[in-house]
Amino acid sequence: MSKIPVGILGATGMVGQNYISLLDGHPWFEVKYVAASARSAGKKYGDVMTGRWHLRKNCPSSVNDIIVEDANDITRAAQSAKQGNLAFVFSALEMEKNEILALESGYAAAGIPVVSNASANRWTDDVPMLIAEVNPDHADIIPAQQKSRGWNKGFIAVKPNCSIQSYMTPFWALIQAGYEIKRAVVSTMQAVSGAGYPGVPSLDIIDNVVPYIGGEEEKSELEPLKIFGKIENGKFNKASSPVISAHCNRVPVINGHTVTVSMEFSDKKPSVEQIKKIWTDFRALPQKLNLPMAPVQPIIVRDEPNRPQPGMDRDIDKGMAVTVGRIRPCNVFDIRFVGLSHNTVRGAAGGGILNAELLKSKGYL
Ligand SMILES: NC(=O)c1ccc[n+]([C@@H]2O[C@H](COP(=O)([O-])OP(=O)(O)OC[C@H]3O[C@@H](n4cnc5c(N)ncnc54)[C@H](OP(=O)(O)O)[C@@H]3O)[C@@H](O)[C@H]2O)c1
């Protein structure tokens, strides 16, 4: 099977580099088109990235000679698509919200589907916000989206914020097992790579914790309600629970967002042992479809009292599994635990690739 040619908008950024690295050798997708700002456009990717590549694994040589395009030049992307060199794009742009809204719609209108990491379209009524293990059925709003916008082949699908990945799959596994989570308090300890590059100044974060990340608490509280919601009349009807109170902190860790969670259930309350079994046994559509980027076991339960830790657990199963531990009774709510997920992999590029694999399996790409 010949591979599907894909593009990366924002290919020079922190998330873009993770896309380049994770797509190297991907069995279905091949990077053929890279785009960034006008500052980077017109030069070879390898030249632009000299001194700017931040991953431990080297930049794959297959992309070195690709000329970086201007992500604002949709006509150029449409030409590539027409020539069969571009089937869809991953969007990892960092720009003003209105600029990203206009660009992502522009690509979709030009017949180029957009699988996005940016937050701009997360609350757009007809745009699915996908975690492949949790709400794969939300992708089925795409035909209604295309119809109402008059788009033929193009569409927009997004992934949620990186801060929520470490508790969404655990919450969903419990909800699926019949336990309604009424409310939860979540405290995140978020890695510096979540702020892109150069991100948080070193003098602000070394030997320090910053107890504020603009917009993250609202995203951590509200995005779960769209993801747990249902499609009704071509729009998402939000779930009403769990009600979440979030505290988001930036900590001096390079990769891996950790979260501590206290949760309260409605009438039916699982025991610690039941929770461990539900989480260990949880499998979802990506595992059933054997999607290449899917973790074999989406939730890894650790029994040691001092795990999970970002330095030890973030890379497990390609950086795509969520690791949980310290599952114990809570004196205020019912149960508390610690969760961990890799923010630039599961929470960004890896999650985007898994969403694209899901969309391909469902016939939308
Ligand atoms: N980092 C994470 O963990 C994470 C997790 C989830 C979601 N996200 C989201 O993913 C997106 C990218 O984040 P990041 O951390 O990778 O940011 P970043 O490192 O700052 O990279 C930003 C990218 O956008 C490009 N860009 C900036 N201004 C542009 C313009 N005017 N026109 C066209 N391209 C422009 C940059 O190109 P140049 O190099 O040419 O400037 C670069 O490729 C953001 O929307 C972010 O919210 C990030």
Description:
This protein is α/β, with parallel strands linked by helices and 365 residues long. It folds into 2 domains: 4-161 and 349-361, NAD(P)-binding Rossmann-like Domain (Rossmann fold, 3-Layer(aba) Sandwich), CATH 3.40.50.720; 163-342, Dihydrodipicolinate Reductase, domain 2 (2-Layer Sandwich). It has helices at residues 14-23, 45-48, 74-82, 97-109, 142-149, 165-176, 202-205, 216-227, 272-281, 285-288, 310-313, 316-319, 345-361, and strands spanning 4-9, 29-36, 68-70, 88-91, 114-116, 156-158, 181-190, 230-232, 235-237, 243-250, 257-265, 299-301, 322-329, 335-341. The strands form 3 sheets. A 6-stranded parallel β-sheet has the order 3-2-1-4-5-6, sandwiched between helices. Strands 10-7-11-14-13-12 form a 6-stranded mixed β-sheet. Strands 8-9 form a two-stranded antiparallel sheet. α1 (14-23) crosses α13 (345-361). The radius of gyration is 20 Å and the shape is globular. The structure holds NADP nicotinamide-adenine-dinucleotide phosphate. NADP nicotinamide-adenine-dinucleotide phosphate is lined by residues 10-16, 36-37, 39-40, 71-72, 92-95, 117-119, 162, 193-194, 196-197, 343-344, 347-348.
Task: Describe how the helices and strands are arranged.
Layout: E1 4-9, H1 14-23, E2 29-36, H2 45-48, E3 68-70, H3 74-82, E4 88-91, H4 97-109, E5 114-116, H5 142-149, E6 156-158, H6 165-176, E7 181-190, H7 202-205, H8 216-227, E8 230-232, E9 235-237, E10 243-250, E11 257-265, H9 272-281, H10 285-288, E12 299-301, H11 310-313, H12 316-319, E13 322-329, E14 335-341, H13 345-361
Helix pairs in contact: 1-13
The structure holds NADP nicotinamide-adenine-dinucleotide phosphate.
